[in-house]
Automatic annotation (TrEMBL):
It holds the Pfam family Methyltransf_11. Residues 130-224 form the Methyltransferase type domain. It comes from the Bacteria. GO terms for biological process: methylation. It comes from Cellvibrio polysaccharolyticus. The keyword Methyltransferase applies. This is Class I SAM-dependent methyltransferase. The keyword S-adenosyl-L-methionine applies. PANTHER family: METHYLTRANSFERASE (PTHR42912). Keywords: Methyltransferase, S-adenosyl-L-methionine, Transferase. GO terms for molecular function: S-adenosylmethionine-dependent methyltransferase activity. PROSITE patterns: UBIE_2 (PS01184).
Length: 300
């Protein structure tokens, strides 16, 4: 069976999914019929000492590049193939993708759910919203729960998307990247992008913002949420006497431990300048700890 079976437009194995320009919506794969190829962590024999040795080496040893499955249906930029978050083969394995989705929320101590609900509030009254870098689809689900009629979730990892599609059948999930959004111009009322830009090199972020601007209708809403730079600030001993101080210590340790190659370059960017140069207006900035959120609008 082909690794990717697409309902609306047939897509062949190993071919980039790029809808023809006259198609305003991306094709949605039939995730329940899809068989995703094993990658090396899936093939590890964890009943053997050798299997565990390889796994531990991946977790704590020298960092390797992700080995994408040969039938990945997208051409992806090289930066995506890093073992983000110290995960063996990053987001590209059947074995670790479910654990990553739950582990991300657990490691954020409940803050992500609150951040997603805050993101979703900005889409009140919207009918068509895309969640970029959706991973397990939890932000997309929060937006759908606000009553948005049509919600899509997009991510480069089919392993994450397969879980998202089985957890949230009311949402349409498809593979794709922020730099090349497979919608025609001015198709969407809203776009969310939650904890994705800090995983991208700056020039790709600028490209992604141009794409968001292109596919949003005039007056459309873009909501961006990313880690707070306060995670990396030095902490005074006095602050540790307060409860918030311990939580900051935890997030600081987390930020230092988890491999995020582009986090510092994201924090160095002047956000007001970035969003303005991409053509967005009306910036609402909601700084928080551990999540910063911006709500922007495409000009009318
Ligand atoms: C930290 S996770 C996002 C979590 C998710 N938004 C949520 O709310 O649970 C980052 C995601 O961004 C995706 N990603 C990385 N580069 C991307 C890009 N260029 N375009 C779209 N998604 C990307 C990764 O595959 C990963 O699933």
């Amino acid at each position: 069976m082909d690794a990717f079976v697409v309902q609306k437009n047939k897509v062949q194995k190993n071919k980039t999914i790029a809808p023809p320009p006259d198609i305003p919506e991306p094709p949605i794969p039939d995730w329940s019929a899809m068989q995703l190829a094993d990658t090396w962590p899936d093939a590890l024999d964890l009943k053997s000492f050798r299997g565990w040795k390889e796994l531990l080496r991946a977790l704590f040893g020298k960092r390797k590049t992700v080995q994408p499955p040969i039938n990945l249906p997208l051409q992806l930029p090289k930066y995506i193939f890093q073992e983000f978050h110290n995960l063996p083969n990053g987001n590209y394995s059947r074995r670790f993708s479910r654990g990553y989705i739950t582990g991300f929320d657990l490691s954020m101590l409940g803050h992500m759910q609150r951040a997603r609900e805050n993101i979703a509030r900005h889409f009140n009254g919207c009918q068509r919203v895309l969640d970029i870098g959706t991973a397990g689809g939890r932000t997309a689900a929060a937006i759908k729960a606000r009553g948005v009629e049509r919600v899509w979730g997009m991510d480069p990892s089919p392993y994450l998307l397969a879980h998202a599609a089985s957890d949230y059948p009311e949402i349409d999930f498809f593979p794709g990247i922020a730099e090349k959004i497979p919608f025609a111009d001015a198709q969407l009322d809203g776009i969310s992008i939650c904890f994705v830009f800090h995983e991208m090199p700056p020039r790709y972020i600028r490209r992604a913002l141009q794409e968001c601007r292109r596919v949003l209708k005039p007056g459309g809403v873009l909501v961006v949420a990313e880690p707070s730079p306060r995670q990396l600030e030095p902490l005074r001993w006095r602050e540790l006497l307060q409860r918030a101080g311990w939580s900051r210590l935890y997030f600081k340790a987390l930020a230092h431990h988890v491999y995020e190659p582009f986090l510092k370059s994201w924090h160095r960017i002047d956000k007001a300048d970035l969003f303005e140069k991409a053509g967005f207006e009306k910036m609402i900035s909601q700084p928080g700890m551990p999540v910063n959120t911006w709500a922007l609008q495409a000009p009318h």
